[in-house]
Specification:
Number of domains: 1
Distance between the termini: 65 Å
Strand order of the largest sheet: 2-1-3-4-5
Number of helices: 10
Largest sheet: 5 strands, parallel
Mean pLDDT: 88
Low-confidence stretches: 18-29, 31-36
Radius of gyration: 24 Å
Structural class: alpha/beta
Helix content: 40-55%
Length: 249
């Protein structure tokens, strides 16, 4: 007996079955998002995330409560935008207290008001490019070390992120530049302090060095110090990668 011929008419599922499948898919997606939200290690519920530093962090931020400008236009804004949208139920608060031109000594002078009094749960610091040629290496390390010790004493559960300073001459050749050599020494100090204080370390220099294989240095950092919008995106991506990996340990 021959089998019945195959039909060319597409099989139609009952409308109720299609709706059921859609609901199941939606619930599965919601469950996956909820599971991710519950396991993401970077920020807990009601966490306060504070960015500290100089002009690179400042990003021409507003000095009012206007939420449209309060985080500036750099890597801090990109990070806050991503996680604020991803986890609205966590009620995360992102703060920026970077001030253009600051060295570590000036950061120390405002540490109580602009850091400790804000009671962060996660503190991210990028400082050092202005110190180059102005603050001796040993003083840079000693002052920076005390700032971290004071922050951990105020909040023993504080999560700390140390971002290495970076420098990118327009020819992309940091090793031939005296300031570049000084910044490298400060990068080593930051790495040392990160290990001492159990902080996540964000290595920006290699990111920009690698980026120069795809576009000229000035595409990423227009004046050897301040990133373009493309450079700030690189910083945000590396920050997220380094911090998430560190706190998954």
């Amino acid at each position: 007996m021959n089998p019945p011929p195959l039909s060319n008419t597409p099989r139609r599922f009952p409308r109720r079955s299609v709706l059921t499948l859609a609901v199941v898919a939606a619930l599965a997606c919601r469950g996956a998002v909820a599971a991710q939200d519950a396991t993401d290690p970077m920020f807990g519920e009601n966490a306060r995330i504070l960015f500290q530093g100089d002009s690179i962090t400042d990003g021409n931020r507003g000095r009012s409560e206007d939420p449209n400008h309060i985080l500036g236009h750099g890597y801090c804004f990109i990070i806050a935008a991503k996680f604020g949208a991803q986890y609205p139920a966590r009620k995360l608060t992102f703060l920026n207290r970077g001030i253009s031109g600051n060295k570590v000594t000036e950061l120390a002078a405002r540490w109580q008001k602009d850091t400790l009094d804000l009671k962060p749960d996660l503190l991210s610091i990028l400082i050092g490019i202005n110190d180059s040629g102005a603050i001796p290496l040993d003083q840079y390390e000693q002052v920076y070390d005390k700032l971290l010790a004071d922050a951990k004493a105020a909040n023993p559960n504080l999560r700390v992120v140390l971002c290495e300073p970076f420098y990118l001459p327009k020819d992309g050749r940091q090793e031939s530049d005296a300031r570049g050599q000084d910044v490298k020494l400060r990068q080593a100090i930051v790495a040392k302090l990160a290990a001492k204080h159990h902080a996540a370390l964000v290595k920006f220099q290699h990111v920009f060095d690698d980026a120069c294989k795809r576009a000229p240095a000035a595409y990423w950092i227009w004046d050897a110090v301040h990133p373009t919008y493309s450079g700030h995106q690189l910083m945000a991506d590396e920050w997220i990668k380094a911090v998430s990996l560190f706190y998954q340990k």
